[in-house]
């Protein structure tokens, strides 16, 4: 069965017809030509396909496109505004938080989502004080970013980039 889906992708309303079994990742990449989210493991384990879906980070390889009709999707490419990179994108460049770059779009979207969660006061498993503001320690960043894998091992720089992006 086919279904029609309307998505707002990086600020632009896009429509496409998809099979009901089409993942959001395949709809973005194959249907709309939006290649910022990457197909890594296709099992929700690596985070390469992470986007901001209605303001929250989500792995798109585990979501059916038809379940997100009318959703707002922001990819790493859509984070920049008026020709200016997002502060997290700048921090990734400044900290050299990438090597091959395959995981970078998912890492950046996840980092933006992490910072939004921290600002909202959402604790993680390692948050020490559940009553006050979240301290964005390296341990806190590692825990929150643990769903995003980097094959090159740029983790030290990624953690610092996320912390810089918070500033």
Automatic annotation (TrEMBL):
Its EC number is 1.17.1.4. Residues 3-79 form the 2Fe-2S ferredoxin-type domain. CDD domains: fer2. Pathway: Alkaloid degradation; nicotine degradation. The keyword Iron-sulfur applies. Keywords: 2Fe-2S, Iron, Iron-sulfur, Metal-binding, Oxidoreductase. PANTHER family: OXIDOREDUCTASE WITH IRON-SULFUR SUBUNIT, OXIDOREDUCTASE, IRON-SULPHUR BINDING SUBUNIT-RELATED-RELATED. This is (2Fe-2S)-binding domain protein. It comes from Saccharothrix espanaensis (strain ATCC 51144 / DSM 44229 / JCM 9112 / NBRC 15066 / NRRL 15764).
């Amino acid at each position: 069965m086919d279904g029609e889906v309307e998505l707002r992708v990086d600020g632009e309303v896009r429509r496409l017809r998809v099979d009901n079994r089409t993942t959001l990742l395949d709809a973005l990449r194959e249907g709309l030509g939006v290649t910022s989210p990457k197909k890594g493991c296709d099992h929700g384990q690596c985070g390469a396909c992470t986007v901001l879906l209605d303001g929250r980070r989500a792995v798109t390889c585990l979501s059916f496109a038809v379940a997100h009709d009318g959703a707002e999707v922001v990819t790493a490419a859509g984070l920049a505004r008026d020709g200016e990179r997002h502060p997290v994108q700048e921090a990734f460049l400044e900290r050299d938080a990438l090597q091959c770059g395959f995981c970078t779009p998912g890492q950046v979207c996840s980092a933006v989502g992490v910072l939004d969660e921290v600002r909202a006061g959402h604790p993680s498993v390692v948050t020490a004080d559940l009553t006050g503001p979240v301290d964005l320690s390296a341990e806190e960043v590692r825990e929150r970013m643990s769903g995003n894998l980097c094959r090159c091992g740029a983790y030290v720089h990624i953690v610092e980039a996320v912390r810089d992006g918070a500033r």
